[in-house]
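Section 5.1 Outputs to date
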Amino acid sequence: MRNPGLVFFFFLFMLFSISVIASCGDDDDDDNDGVSQNDDDDDTAADNDDDTDDDVDDDANDDVDDDVDDDDTVPDDIIDPPDEMPFTIHRDPAGTAPTMGEIDSFTQTMKDFYEGVDIFRWARRHSFGASEDNPDGDPPFMIWWQCAHALKTGDTVTFAFDCSPDNTLATVTRFLPGVIGLYLANGDEDARDLALGYIQGLSATYDGMVWAGEDPVVDYLTARTIFYRNHSYEIEPGRNVTVDYDFVRNEEVARRHDTWRNPNNPTWGDIYVRNKRSKDDLPFLYRGLPFLARIIRESDDGELIDESIKLYRHIVRMCRDIVDTDYKIYTKGENGEVFLPRTENGFVDDFASFTNYDILSPNGECTAKIASAYIGYGDAQGNDCGNGVVPLYEFVFLLSHYWATNIVYGFHLSAVSMAINFHDINTAQEMLNGLATRMDQIKNHPMAGDYFEWYPDFAALLVIAAANGLPLTSDEAHLVMEHYSAAAEHYGDFELWDLWDASVPDGEYNYLPERSERDADGNIVKTHVRLTEIAHLYEYCYSPLKDPNSAQFIDCDALFGN
């Protein structure tokens, strides 16, 4: 006979959790794909966290070395990532390993795609923010935007907006580690320029949140994004760009984001800032931190090193503040005032907290907490996440919306990565074993058949998990090859990779290829790996943390052209 008290508790947990999770919304970064859209729902939900302390931590800048060495010495505050995986775990190989012929064929398929569309040069041409030669001489930066379209007129492409983007941090940070991997592997110039622009773009979300006259200056809170001013520039001879920010340079107030004018920003002057950074994008940002450290330690490019140190320290100070404020994500308001987003009932909003579930599921968001703690303080700060899997919390969370998979799985992976890179081997090993358990569950998850994107996203997750020491099974290796090959074929059919080409007539275009295929009635029939995750193979191949016992699926030497 069922325990009535347990049943009642579970009922309350389900009711409470679904209510709270609704506040998180759907923060998917791929609003061009037709699968998930930015959700600007201003619905209210009761959160259990009634913390009323809106004071941002004043010590977030403490113990951070502000001096960047002028010689070859790496600053003391930069982690030293391991040169090889410090341990291995065992998994059942499950299935028949890909043959060398299959691996060679897959490698060539991906090389043909990357080189055929010139993926990193394409990204450089289509990412924008403030150009190197902007008329005001302001610091440059690049962002991979959402909600944007292109208008071609002769040799000029104008980028403008259809809506206000929320999750540019996710688009950039999904793509950036692969860019850095290619650059560090062989010095690719397009990858170098793109990495620099994106690193500057991520720093811009911190620097753009500074208002003139702040004392002390709070430069460790990050915006969702910032909007610079209209300007034009030439990216290459015969390839001109105009950026039109008019649609997004407007003030707006909403539950999950506001847009405020920052007329005298110390870095860029008159800009608009979209605030209320959500936790949804942070697992992707966290995973990139070791790649910044590797640039700082391995590159001889002074400009790239300096920008990497700057961003690295922004992220560290942000995470320190998150830990010091009981795992809350503060933001700034209309005049630069620091505050904590709350619901209309006064509770801390879920998107700005890692603690709203603690009363019912204390370890529900432990992987987010521990990853923040490693970055902010270099250790777990007392967090014990076990193997990183919290079944009841995750079950309810995933019932709310599909985007929860990115949060739950992303933070687990980031927690593993941080534990490895901050040399907490026992914790890393336990959570990597938990990640292996999670992969077994994802493949046969009861919700898998409900979403076209389930297995393409699983394939992308497997690649970056393998880059962080997870040995793939043979079946998983085949799944990666299947979905990445299909994505390469799908995206390869896109006809607008080069808008400046003479074969493309003047007109208005969606310059980002949709990740889904549709039937004649516009219904989605198949979805592919995100374009922002198509370069994960470079992240994997560069990583020194690959398990040599993992099932192989790509020839990394051939991918890098060695």
